[in-house]
Structure prediction request, 225 residues.
Amino acid sequence: MINWNDIKDIDWLEVLIPPSGSYLPGVKKEVQGLLLEQQKKPGGEKTGHYVSYSVGSKLIKRAAFKAGGIGGLTCLPSTLPVIGTIGTVMVGSVVDLILVLRVQVELCYAMSIAYGVDMDEDELKAVALAILGFSGSAEAVKAATAGMLRRTVDEMAAHYIKAGLSRATTEVAERLLPRLLRMTYRFIPFLGIPLGASINIVSTMMVGNQARKYFDTWSDDKILY
Prediction:
């Protein structure tokens, strides 16, 4: 199986969260272009919330499609007799985790821009990590309302900032990896390709919807505790 010491030695901050100086401006420019494009579309409602929601939906679909492609590709070696399923589980799981989480982190960044949320870069990184760790967790089941979601994510983000982003990214990755490895059936030859794609699509849509729900609470201070 996977050498957990090697997993812990990975610089998760570097592989999941690229330097913001060259990364965030590009994401911001792209999303602002999508917002402008949506505003210019003829007919239909043009309120800020409608535009943000429409662009958010487009961002989620695009990220889910990208994550699905990653899931299919990382499962592809299981169809090759020379490589075998065990080796694919060891290598493919980690590669898949890194690539998909990076897509999901970028989706959280993009969603904050779509909803016009301007926050400190370290805070944004911490919030993105919190949303990743939150989605699909027991806390997500309990947080039925937007207010509870906002409070839970804010508390997790505050913890990550206090602990340090480098440690926080490792904590989130180690928390999510066992959940991914339990899905070893995704590496069954041929069957694993659609399974790997569908699992990544569902998880990315879940993250995107949680990010949209969270950042939407910032508009007009729509938050109830």
